[in-house]
Amino acid sequence: MALEMASSPTFEDRKTLATDCFKRGAAAMKMQNWEYACEMLRQSVNLAPDDLLYRQALRAATERRYQNNGTGIVMAEMRLIGTKSTIKKNRLLCDWNSVLFSCEDGLALNPWDAALQANLGDAAYVMGWLDIAIWSYEGAVKQDRFNEAYTNTLLKMVEERGD
Fold first, then answer.
1. Beta-carbon contacts of residue 103 (< 8 Å; ≥ 6 apart)
2. What are phi and psi of 126, to 5 degrees?
3. Taking 90 as the threshold, does the pLDDT of residue 3 lie above it?
4. Residues 141-155: what's their mean pLDDT?
5. Global pTM?
Protein backbone atom coordinates (compact mmCIF):
# COMPACT_ATOMS: atom_id res chain seq x y z
CA MET A 1 0.00 0.00 0.00
CA ALA A 2 1.64 3.18 -1.19
CA LEU A 3 1.37 6.34 0.85
CA GLU A 4 0.04 9.32 -1.04
CA MET A 5 1.96 12.50 -0.61
CA ALA A 6 -0.17 15.48 0.28
CA SER A 7 0.39 18.20 -2.23
CA SER A 8 1.18 21.66 -0.99
CA PRO A 9 -1.75 24.09 -1.05
CA THR A 10 -2.22 26.10 -4.21
CA PHE A 11 -2.21 29.88 -4.24
CA GLU A 12 -6.00 29.90 -4.24
CA ASP A 13 -6.14 27.46 -1.32
CA ARG A 14 -3.75 29.64 0.67
CA LYS A 15 -5.79 32.75 -0.08
CA THR A 16 -8.98 30.99 0.99
CA LEU A 17 -7.37 29.79 4.21
CA ALA A 18 -5.94 33.25 4.87
CA THR A 19 -9.36 34.83 4.38
CA ASP A 20 -10.95 32.32 6.74
CA CYS A 21 -8.31 32.97 9.41
CA PHE A 22 -8.75 36.71 8.97
CA LYS A 23 -12.51 36.42 9.46
CA ARG A 24 -12.02 34.36 12.61
CA GLY A 25 -9.47 36.86 13.89
CA ALA A 26 -11.77 39.80 13.17
CA ALA A 27 -14.61 38.05 15.01
CA ALA A 28 -12.33 37.42 17.98
CA MET A 29 -11.34 41.11 17.98
CA LYS A 30 -15.01 42.08 18.22
CA MET A 31 -15.30 39.82 21.26
CA GLN A 32 -12.03 41.26 22.63
CA ASN A 33 -10.41 37.83 22.68
CA TRP A 34 -7.00 39.27 21.83
CA GLU A 35 -5.03 36.06 22.25
CA TYR A 36 -7.12 34.14 19.72
CA ALA A 37 -7.40 37.18 17.44
CA CYS A 38 -3.61 37.47 17.29
CA GLU A 39 -3.25 33.76 16.62
CA MET A 40 -5.75 33.76 13.73
CA LEU A 41 -4.47 37.01 12.23
CA ARG A 42 -0.92 35.73 12.43
CA GLN A 43 -2.01 32.68 10.45
CA SER A 44 -3.58 34.93 7.81
CA VAL A 45 -0.31 36.89 7.54
CA ASN A 46 1.69 33.67 7.23
CA LEU A 47 -0.59 32.38 4.48
CA ALA A 48 -0.77 35.68 2.58
CA PRO A 49 2.36 37.64 3.53
CA ASP A 50 1.82 40.23 0.81
CA ASP A 51 -1.54 41.41 2.18
CA LEU A 52 -1.23 44.76 3.97
CA LEU A 53 -4.70 44.61 5.54
CA TYR A 54 -3.89 41.37 7.33
CA ARG A 55 -0.70 42.86 8.79
CA GLN A 56 -2.49 46.02 9.88
CA ALA A 57 -5.20 44.02 11.65
CA LEU A 58 -2.60 41.81 13.31
CA ARG A 59 -0.66 44.81 14.59
CA ALA A 60 -3.85 46.46 15.90
CA ALA A 61 -4.87 43.27 17.71
CA THR A 62 -1.39 42.85 19.19
CA GLU A 63 -1.38 46.42 20.45
CA ARG A 64 -4.76 45.85 22.09
CA ARG A 65 -3.51 42.56 23.52
CA TYR A 66 -0.92 44.57 25.45
CA GLN A 67 -3.50 47.25 26.32
CA ASN A 68 -1.66 49.83 24.19
CA ASN A 69 1.11 50.01 26.80
CA GLY A 70 3.74 51.01 24.23
CA THR A 71 6.24 48.38 25.40
CA GLY A 72 4.64 45.00 24.72
CA ILE A 73 5.24 41.97 26.89
CA VAL A 74 7.13 42.26 30.18
CA MET A 75 10.88 42.40 29.57
CA ALA A 76 10.34 42.47 25.81
CA GLU A 77 13.87 43.69 25.06
CA MET A 78 15.41 40.70 26.83
CA ARG A 79 13.05 38.29 25.09
CA LEU A 80 13.83 39.82 21.70
CA ILE A 81 17.61 39.36 21.83
CA GLY A 82 17.49 35.97 20.09
CA THR A 83 14.94 37.14 17.52
CA LYS A 84 16.99 40.20 16.63
CA SER A 85 20.10 38.04 16.31
CA THR A 86 18.23 35.72 13.93
CA ILE A 87 17.06 38.71 11.89
CA LYS A 88 20.62 40.02 11.63
CA LYS A 89 21.88 36.60 10.47
CA ASN A 90 19.10 36.23 7.90
CA ARG A 91 19.71 39.74 6.57
CA LEU A 92 23.35 38.82 5.97
CA LEU A 93 22.20 35.67 4.16
CA CYS A 94 19.64 37.73 2.18
CA ASP A 95 16.94 35.32 3.38
CA TRP A 96 14.20 37.94 3.30
CA ASN A 97 11.34 35.52 3.81
CA SER A 98 12.90 34.44 7.12
CA VAL A 99 13.44 38.08 8.04
CA LEU A 100 9.71 38.71 7.53
CA PHE A 101 8.72 35.78 9.75
CA SER A 102 11.26 36.67 12.44
CA CYS A 103 10.10 40.28 12.49
CA GLU A 104 6.52 39.13 12.98
CA ASP A 105 7.72 36.86 15.81
CA GLY A 106 9.30 39.86 17.48
CA LEU A 107 6.40 42.20 16.82
CA ALA A 108 4.13 39.65 18.50
CA LEU A 109 6.05 40.45 21.70
CA ASN A 110 6.44 44.20 21.16
CA PRO A 111 4.48 45.75 18.29
CA TRP A 112 6.08 49.15 19.02
CA ASP A 113 9.69 48.09 18.36
CA ALA A 114 11.03 50.51 15.75
CA ALA A 115 13.97 48.33 14.71
CA LEU A 116 11.71 45.34 14.05
CA GLN A 117 9.36 47.50 12.01
CA ALA A 118 12.26 48.87 9.98
CA ASN A 119 13.62 45.37 9.33
CA LEU A 120 10.15 44.25 8.27
CA GLY A 121 10.02 47.26 5.95
CA ASP A 122 13.38 46.39 4.41
CA ALA A 123 12.36 42.78 3.80
CA ALA A 124 9.01 43.82 2.32
CA TYR A 125 10.76 46.31 0.04
CA VAL A 126 13.14 43.65 -1.28
CA MET A 127 10.17 41.30 -1.81
CA GLY A 128 8.51 44.02 -3.91
CA TRP A 129 5.74 44.89 -1.43
CA LEU A 130 6.16 48.67 -1.37
CA ASP A 131 2.92 49.41 0.51
CA ILE A 132 3.89 47.08 3.36
CA ALA A 133 7.41 48.54 3.39
CA ILE A 134 6.10 52.10 3.64
CA TRP A 135 3.57 51.17 6.33
CA SER A 136 6.31 49.44 8.34
CA TYR A 137 8.65 52.38 8.06
CA GLU A 138 5.86 54.76 9.05
CA GLY A 139 5.54 52.73 12.25
CA ALA A 140 9.30 52.81 12.80
CA VAL A 141 9.43 56.59 12.34
CA LYS A 142 6.44 57.03 14.65
CA GLN A 143 8.27 55.11 17.39
CA ASP A 144 11.71 56.66 16.80
CA ARG A 145 11.17 60.15 15.39
CA PHE A 146 14.79 61.14 15.74
CA ASN A 147 16.24 58.27 13.70
CA GLU A 148 17.31 59.93 10.47
CA ALA A 149 17.97 56.62 8.71
CA TYR A 150 14.35 55.53 9.20
CA THR A 151 13.03 58.89 8.07
CA ASN A 152 15.26 59.02 4.98
CA THR A 153 14.36 55.47 3.97
CA LEU A 154 10.67 56.23 4.38
CA LEU A 155 11.00 59.38 2.27
CA LYS A 156 12.77 57.46 -0.51
CA MET A 157 10.06 54.80 -0.53
CA VAL A 158 7.24 57.33 -0.57
CA GLU A 159 8.96 59.16 -3.41
CA GLU A 160 9.38 55.88 -5.31
CA ARG A 161 5.65 55.27 -4.97
CA GLY A 162 5.08 58.73 -6.46
CA ASP A 163 3.66 60.52 -3.43
1. 87, 116, 117, 119, 120, 123
2. -65, -35
3. no
4. 97
5. 0.91
